[in-house]
Structure formats: C-alpha cells, structure tokens
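Standup notes
- HV: blocked on the assembly model, inputs below
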Amino acid sequence: NAGVTQTPKFQVLKTGQSMTLQCAQDMNHEYMSWYRQDPGMGLRLIHYSVGAGITDQGEVPNGYNVSRSTTEDFPLRLLSAAPSQTSVYFCASSTTEGNTIYFGEGSWLTVV
Amino acid sequence: DQQVKQNSPSLSVQEGRISILNCDYTNSMFDYFLWYKKYPAEGPTFLISISSIKDKNEDGRFTVFLNKSAKHLSLHIVPSQPGDSAVYFCAARAAGGTSYGKLTFGQGTILTVHP
C-alpha cells in the first residue's frame, strides 16, 4: 500500500540551482497535483494534471514546470531555484470522481 | 483573495469535550468540502467530506455541518481525544470537469486536546 510517494524528503538548494521533486502513485489515479504549504497560508495549488499528457496551472505556477508522461508519475521541476521557493511540497492524487484526494508525505525544500 | 478561510489559528479543548472547528468560503461554485488532518512532518490525511446537497455528514466521532446560505461549514469532534491534536485544514472543490482534482485550502487550525 505505497499510495503517493514523494522523493526526496529533504533538500537544500543554492539559489539558481535546478532540481526535480519526484511523485509516484500506484492507485491508477487519473488526477495528480502539486501543492506547496507555507506558514499561515494553508496549501496552494501549483500545477495539476487530469491524465497522461495533460497538465495545467494552478494558483502559484511561476517558477515551476511539470510533465505527465505516465499515469503513475508527476515530477515537479524547479528550473532556477529562488529563496521564495523555500516551502513544503505535497503531491496528491485522486480518481476522476475526486471525492477523496490522497497526499504524499511531503518534501521539505530550502533554498539558500 | 482567500476563498476559504479558517479564522481561528488555534483551538484548545479538554479531553472528552467537544471540539468545533469552523470554516467559511466565498466562492458559490464550490460544491464539495473536505476536512484534512495533518500531523507534523506528514502529509494531510483525509478525515471527512460533505457534498453541497447535504447539510450534515457523520463518521464516528466526526461530524461535518454545512450551511450553504451562510457559506459556512464546521467540523465537530465528540469526544475529543489527545490523539486528535493536529492541524486541521478545510478544503473546497468547485463543480465539474477538471475541477475534481483541484482543492482550495483554508489556512488551518491547530487543535490541542489536553488530557
């Protein structure tokens, strides 16, 4: 019962570096999404995907890229990290009904 | 513009008593509401949900009430237990199409249940 798996759990980056946060789900869910959590602001949607080959922007997409080549995987790319991207990132997935959305355990990213 | 608001950053209750967490929303397109519980260093865990066609949904110690006219929902936990201490997030989803996978979250309320 892996559910939604995120890697890495912790990462420190220097400003300007690039990296990819990995997300995989084994529930055959069509919908996948990325959120970031910042103090006092709850979780905010970065990008989402309704199926392989289809992605769209959420509330805070700037500075992030995504792709969805398979149903299982939905990586989040930071092309040039900035201190404002220091946050906790959560990947989520759900069925097309969307009545229950499952989250991964989070990735803590610090940009110095 | 915060479309989902949890105006109480924290709540402290005694074990065995009722915990009431509140949530307000502004977007009339929201038709499905969820509550998530989050422990430190873990991802949010689904707790309970309610569709806009209902005004109440119950699951064990947890009950969610929805007042559509007031755009207000609340989560009741009875009786509260120390293990319920966590951050509780209210979330909302708009109707239709690709909105099913997109949630709008409130800021969260830290619940502390004292033994």
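- HV (later): unblocked. The two ends of chain B are 38 Å apart (CA to CA). Chain B touches chain A at residues 4, 6, 9, 32, 34, 36, 41-46, 49, 89, 91, 93, 98-108 (CB under 8 Å).
- Next: hand off to the docking folks.
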